[in-house]
Amino acid sequence: MNNQHYQDLTITPVASNKTIYLEHISKVYGTGATEVNALSDVSLIVETCEYCSIMGPSGSGKSTAMNIIGCLDRPTSGTYYLDNVDVAQMDDGKLAHIRNQKVGFVFQQFHLLPQLSALENVMLPMVYAGIPSRERYDRAKESLIRVGLEKHFNNRPTQLSGGQQQRVAITRAIINNPVLLLADEPTGALDSYTTQEILDIFGELNANGMTVVMVTHELEVARHTQRIIWFIDGQIIHSRLTPDELGQLIVS
Fold this sequence. Notes:
Organism: Richelia intracellularis HH01
Protein name: ATP-binding protein of ABC transporter
Strand order of the largest sheet: 6-7-8-3-9-10
CATH superfamily: P-loop containing nucleotide triphosphate hydrolases
CATH class: Alpha Beta
Keywords: ATP-binding, Nucleotide-binding, Transport
Helix content: 25-40%
InterPro entries: AAA+_ATPase, ABC_transporter-like_ATP-bd, ABC_transpr_LolD-like, MacB-like_ATP-bd, P-loop_NTPase
Pfam family, one: ABC_tran
Low-confidence stretches: 1-15
Number of strands: 10
Structural class: alpha/beta
């Protein structure tokens, strides 16, 4: 992976040193006998330019936390400030606007639109942001060139390898210069070589000022981040594990 792929991207810094501020967040699904406490009194700060991973066993609450952090869901109670904006109880329309402007998403299965080319997939968030068509085209083209996909502008997702699709997905995620990149098992469908390529891109983005939070179940992937947040039973058990400390925890 060419280390110059993303070094020229300009990431707009946030005004505060806290990109994510969760305070006493709880999330309850169902009522009565079917009630499930997916999150219980979770508090977390992720500062600007941090690179964190969220880990924990199945059912630990990490996916629910990711959905709330990404403004895909609202907490039952508690306070959430994203880039100094109180988003905890925003309505769906306002949350959609916040997601488009402040959060970029990368998923395990890429979630590219199959009927669109790589270029069109990257342009899509800019359509929703109201960016003029000529600027959309130029920015998408330039960004795909930076990740080595200059020969694949017109390829649809089925004509791209898994690694190429993930590079398109990452480019789409950051095309509006969000303050936060959220990655949910972004390497789960990739081989080890391509995994390293994707992690190199995340590292470059973080080095250039972007806050990155990644959910993963792979210790070797988490080792690339600065700290690890460990969930169990809907609560944060450890908020600042180093990769070595996590390794010792798992062994013990």
